[in-house]
Amino acid sequence: MQLRDFGRTGMQLSVLGFGCGAVGGLMVRGDPAEQERTIAQAIAAGVNYFDTAVQYGNGESEKNLGRVLQKLKPANVAVGTKVRLLPSEFGRIADAVTMSLEGSLRRVGLDHVDIFQLHNPITETGGGFALSVRQVLGDVVPAFERLRQQGKTRFLGITAVGDTAALHQVIDACVLDSAQVVYNMLNPSAAEELPTNYPAQDYGRLFDHTKAAGVGVVGIRVLAGGALSGSTERHLIAALAPEPIGSAMTYDADVDRARRLIPLVKEGFVTSLTEAATRFALSHPAMGTILVGIATQQQFEDALAAVQKGPLPRTAFDRLSALWQEFSGEPR
Fold first, then answer.
1. Are 13 and 49 in contact (CB under 8 A)?
2. The domain that contains 116 carries what CATH number?
3. Which residues are paired to 136 by β-bridges?
4. pLDDT score of 241
5. Sorting pLDDT into bands at 50, 70 and 90, what band is 77?
6. Alpha helices in the chain (DSSP H)
7. Distance (Å, rounded) from C-alpha 37 to C-alpha 325?
8. Cα 284–79–240 angle (5° rounding)?
9. pLDDT band for position 46 (50/70/90)?
C-alpha cells in the first residue's frame, strides 16, 4: 500500500483509508464478524487511517470501530473522528466541542484521536447548521486547540463543504492540519477549472489552497455517495440514496451523469465505473488518503484492487475531459 505525506503533519497515511460512514453502512449496520474481518484485511493490506464520526449511526460507528481495534490491537494506525454542532449549541461552542470529543473517545476506547474534524458546513455568514467563517476561526479552532493542548487530539481539521469562498478563507488562515475535500469524476473542481456552465459547485481549485497552507487532504464522496457505480441499487445495509454534495441537486441526476461516463469502461480504460472513480480520486498528488464507502468486505476488496492498479492513465483523463464538456450548460 502506497503511503503519502499528509500535509505538514509528519504523518504518512495509506492512500486508501477506511471509511466508517453511514452511507456504505458496514460499520454502522453491518455484521460484527464481517466488520472485524474487513478491518483485519484492511490492516493486513497496509491501510492505516480509519475515519469515523459520532453522526454515523449516533455513535454506533465509533463503538464498532473501537471494539474491533481493541480486539486486533494494530500498531501505528491513525483514527479520525468529527463533531457536528447543533444550532442550539452555537452559543456554547467550546463546551459542546469538548463534550463531543470526550464522548467519541469513550466510544472508540482511546485517550486521543489523531484528527478531530468539524463536520458542519461553513459559509460566509452561517445560518441553519452552517457555521460562519468568524465562528470557525474565532470559536471552533480555539476550542480544538485547547483539546490538542490537553492531548486529546493531535491534529485539527474540517469537512470542506459549504460556500467555496468561505472554505478558501478558513484554509488560507493556516490554522488547520486536515481538510476532507469533495473530489470525484462528477466534480473535479478542487483540482482544475470546470467547463463553462458546468452543473456542479465550483470549489475553485481548493487543492491549490490546501497545498499552500500545508493542509493534508482526505478525499470524500469519491463515489458520489454511490452514484458513480452507475446503478440506483443499494445494498441492504447501505443508507438510502444520500443528498448529493457538490455535484447535481438530486441523486438520480448524479446517477444519470455517471452512466454517461461508461465510455471509460467500454473503451477499455477500466473494468468498472467504481474502479475509474477510485483511481481518479487517488490520481491527484494533493490527495493524502481517499475514503470509499463500503457495505461489505467484497466492496472493500474491490476498492483495494482498484487502488493497487494505481492512478488513471493520462489518456483516461483526456477522455474524461471530453465527456465533461458534454455536461456544460445542463441544469444542476
1. yes
2. 3.20.20.100
3. none
4. 80
5. very high
6. 26-29, 32-45, 60-72, 93-108, 133-135, 141-149, 164-172, 206-213, 251-259, 263-266, 273-283, 297-308, 314-325
7. 43
8. 75
9. very high
CB 284 within 8 A of CB 191: yes
Query: For residue 190, what are the domain limits?
Result: 3-325
**What's the rounded mean pLDDT across residues 221-249?**
89
Residue 181: phi and psi, rounded to 5, are -120, 130
Q: Which three cell numbers stand for residue 119?
A: 463536520
Residue the block writes with cell 475515519? 51
Task: Report yes or no on 331 lying in a domain.
Answer: no
Q: Each residue of 138-161: pLDDT tens digit?
A: 999 999 999 999 999 999 999 999
How many structural domains is the chain composed of? Answer: 1
Domain-embedded: residue 332 = no
Name the DSSP letter for residue 224.
G
To 10 degrees, the CA torsion angle through 242, 248, 250, 254? -70
- The reported pLDDT for the residue numbered 234 is 83
For the chain, what is the mean pLDDT? 96
